[in-house]
Specification:
Chain lengths: 160, 196
């Protein structure tokens, strides 16, 4: 995990991680993204789907997206790379701590997924189903990858 | 290694992935995908909206999925039918996934490990279930016991997760055991091998 990975306990995802969903996300990523190698951190009792990326953003050598999804449909997709860039799309209650965020969906911007609540933004992803959120994450990643820029990651459109 | 494909232009990532999904799948596939991860009952129109199809089409597919046991249908409060993924079909699906990858011996070892993990939580917190742990935490918070914050909320979720996955693993082992005794009397030269 990258630095500054978590805030307080009040920002936990609700409910246990859902193995059936992690498997479905793994299979979708495998089908959709040639640069990604997704693997459960524990085959039988997984907490995280680790998606190794053969290329990072902006020319970074290695990168990984860690995905968690719970039975309550809360989630985190956390990008971290070998240059120390971290960012994260998430959905979980934040009890008004993120003043700029209207719903549960939010985006911790790079470079360090800063825990400063004033920098957390609304997420451009508002789909709620696991495989549609995964498709959106892959599309945003791919757009940023080809643009060689971090800007498209929460722009929701191409060109942003 | 093939390179990552360049995405086309899009205005709204939510709408773009929705359209792609619709283009790549049939209404049946979308209804099945939506209900796969719907654990609390919803109406056919709700599924239809998420699956980008009509309520009539959604209802037809949901009823068929209920007939084959993938979906549980129940009467809602105002007479309409409500649907959710059947728990039995989740268990059977997860058991099949586990058996496709692990041998019975590996499975027995891993089940023991998960059981020990759960026993560890029980010992650590002195309660028998993650739900009791939540009650215990609340009681301690109400009583303002200073060590209330020594109980890790992440532990509670991991406990629930491990218990759920242990249930899947146990189901897998039971199925593997049962299969040894089903249709086995005919042996390798029996019915399966000589039919046709």
């Amino acid at each position: 995990m990258g630095p500054g990975h978590e805030q307080g306990e009040s920002h936990s995802l609700r409910g246990p991680v859902d193995r059936p969903v992690l498997i479905a996300i793994r299979d979708l990523v495998d089908d959709e993204e040639p640069l990604a190698r997704p693997e459960l951190d524990d085959f039988l009792d997984p907490q995280t789907l680790e998606v190794q990326l053969d290329d990072g953003l902006c020319g970074t050598e290695r990168a990984r997206i860690d995905a968690q999804w719970t039975t309550h449909n809360d989630y985190k997709f956390h990008y971290t790379d070998s240059k120390g860039v971290d960012l994260r799309w998430g959905k979980h209650p934040h009890y008004g701590d993120y003043g700029n965020v209207t719903g549960f969906e939010h985006y911790h911007p790079p470079p360090d997924t800063t825990s400063d609540p004033s920098t957390v933004e609304d997420s451009c992803i508002t789909q709620s189903a696991p495989l549609l959120v995964t498709r959106a994450v892959l599309k945003l990643w791919r757009t940023a990858y080809h643009a060689e820029s971090l800007t498209p990651l929460n722009a929701g459109s191409d060109p942003p | 290694m093939t390179d990552s494909p360049v995405p086309g232009e899009f205005d709204d990532v939510d709408e773009a992935v929705g359209r792609e999904w619709e283009a790549e799948t049939t209404p049946y596939e979308r209804v099945r995908e939506v209900i796969s991860y719907t654990y609390t009952p919803v109406s056919a129109p709700t599924v239809a909206e998420k699956a980008r199809t009509s309520p009539k089409t959604a209802r037809k597919h949901l009823d068929a999925l209920a007939d084959e046991g993938f979906v549980t249908a129940e009467s809602g409060e105002n007479g309409g039918t409500r649907y959710r993924r059947s728990r039995e079909s989740i268990v059977v699906e997860q058991a099949a996934d586990i058996l496709a990858r692990l041998s019975t011996e590996e499975l027995v070892d891993r089940i023991e490990e998960l059981r020990e993990r759960i026993a560890g939580y029980r010992d650590e917190y002195g309660v028998d279930s993650p739900e009791e742990l939540a009650v215990e935490r609340t009681n301690r918070a109400l009583a303002e016991t200073p060590d209330a914050d020594t109980i890790d909320p992440e532990d509670r979720r991991e406990w629930q997760r491990t218990r759920r996955n242990l249930a899947f693993a146990n189901a897998a082992l039971s199925i593997a055991n049962a299969e040894r005794f089903v249709g086995g009397e005919s042996g390798p030269t029996g019915e399966r091998a000589t039919s046709r």
